[in-house]
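hey so i finally got around to running the thing on that chain from the lab meeting. sorry it took forever, my laptop kept dying and i had to restart like 3 times. anyway pasting the input first so we r on the same page abt which one it is
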Amino acid sequence: MKRLLLAPLLISISLLNMGFLGKPKLQGLYCSETKNLLNKSFEDKWKDYPWIYDVKTGKLYDYDEFLNEINPLEYDKVGEYSFSYRSRMIDNILKIRETETSPFSEEVIGMYSIDLEKNKSSYNTEENLKDITTTRCEKIDLPKGVKINY
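ok and heres what got predicted. didnt touch it at all, straight out
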């Protein structure tokens, strides 16, 4: 009788563990040209669109301050401007490709390369590969009580 109950118990435990193993581990990262990143408050950093990414895959997420929740980020719209994102993790470098479209100008493709060990970000566009903007970055905690929608 005990053997009959053992198999369903092990299967149930296995299925429960699968639900917890698949969730991404998210990290917030604030990058700025400001010389001293410590001058900005925690709230100001979150209002200034930090990067939120899965540390394993590099998949991006977006923070909704009003709802206090984090959602997957593939597309964003700000006024007449639309942004689409593709990202991935290569070793300890977060690579992000941002495509910006608007009715006012041609499509702009920007590329971010964020070294997570050195806490430095570089940005350039496809049309100006040599014009690189470098910023300093710092890891920031996720807001308290935030709901994460995977």
